[in-house]
Amino acid sequence: MEIGKTIWFKSRKDFRKWLQKNNNRKEYLWLGFYKRHIKKTGILYPEAVEEALCFGWIDGILKRIDDQKHVIRFSPRRPKSVWSPHNINRVKKLIKQKKMRKASRQIIPQPILKKLEK
What we know:
Structural class: alpha+beta
Protein name: Bacteriocin-protection protein
Strand order of the largest sheet: 1-2-4-3
Strand content: 15-25%
Distance between the termini: 40 Å
Helix content: 25-40%
Number of helices: 5
Number of domains: 1
């Protein structure tokens, strides 16, 4: 898979703004990340995944650019996709923090949603 246009967000807040505007309009996003040993700053992977989950998106393919950078493809989660234990825990936290959007909660499979709401 070829890397498309890549966006380098400076903060979690910037990525959230992009998702608010584009989550229903875009099929995917290549999100750029700096590796930890680099002094440049940007959104961190855990922050990006949490924001994506709030909007019903998920991380996918990781591609190395060079020794300093890589990109990850984010896209809307498919209805029957597999939920990892890590993402279930993240969503549980996001629900408690009231960060999950209502539409995004609707794509969570009912058995998982019932566990999360206990």
